[in-house]
Amino acid sequence: MISETFIRWDTRELLPGGTAIVADPPPRGESVLHGQAWDAGECPVLAFDPLPGDPPPSAERLNAVADFLATHSVEAVLVEYLDFADRWFDFLLRQSVRVWLRGHGVDFSARLTEQRWRDAYRRYELAAGIIVPSAVAADALTTLGLPAEKIHVVRYSVELPRPRPATTRDRSPDVRCVAVGRLVPKKAPLLLLEAFRDAASRHQNVVLDLVGDGPLMGEVRQYVDEHELTDRVHVHGRLPHSDTLALIRGADILLHHAVTSPQDGDTEGQPLAILEAMAAGLPVIATNHAGIPEAITDKVNGRLVAEHDVRAMTANLLELADDHAEQQRLGRAARKTIKERHGPDHARQVLLTLLGLAEAGTTARARAR
Hints:
It contains 15 helices and 12 strands. The protein has helices spanning 5-12, 30-33, 59-71, 82-85, 89-93, 115-122, 135-144, 189-200, 217-226, 241-249, 272-279, 310-321, 324-341, 344-354, 358-368; strands at 21-23, 45-47, 76-80, 98-102, 129-132, 151-153, 175-180, 206-211, 233-237, 253-256, 284-287, 303-305. The radius of gyration is 21 Å and the shape is globular. It starts with a helix and ends with a helix.
């Protein structure tokens, strides 16, 4: 469960030297299908092999986790994803630990369309607390009936790189666009490609780096080939996070066309790719979807269009492609937003305080000096 960027941050940056990891990946989880996508560093790890059918944890596994928690004197457990927490929740309540849950996009959308998950989530009022990335997510859980005082909005955090050199854009006539995300229905990569194709037909210098893999990869490659975009669109597939960041930081504009999935109602939480682009000083053109407008205000620090509005995304891209001054203005405002609301130091302090580990965090920082 640690292939996601925000989970990597929780394991590596939240409490260095004071974190232990239990990994229980589902049979078709990202780390199973694509290989381990995370590095635990020096953290102690208890990793289970996935089992066919993903059965509930056996008595043997429950005992192993209990021993692991005791051996490493664990005080608080942070379980990533509310649906994943269901299989471990009752067991964890019986341990001498504070049980915190951290929800992400699918937890507040697709899962809430099913009665079994709504019933499971209502048990979480017994947790020490639930951490969510946006006010939209918090509202979804309070509507379900969970106590508002148990729900805490802690926005995802990203590192703030050095400001972009003012001369970066002048090195090439190309307007480099980048799009990052799994190729799944809620990311709507085909709608994004349609918007880019329309823009490319009217602007000879726009190019696109598309990063990500997933079940729609075949359709993405087919679209690029059929519309003769191979010289304008570079489909990278899955890349290491460092390579993805390099592409984002070398681009001019980030495109993100998230929609509510027509298949299961799944939505975004607050996409890390958007936050990382804003931190790098890029203008972002995205959809007015889920938690995205909590980071982007249209025409203030980015551009927002309605879900499925391909024409509006095309129009915004063409406008920004020919207006370098507006790119810079939006990029500066975006970076300011990240500095003020999504910095890692603030997120770390809030999370450690909630988890009751503020003193341990102070000690860890003192050791690091």
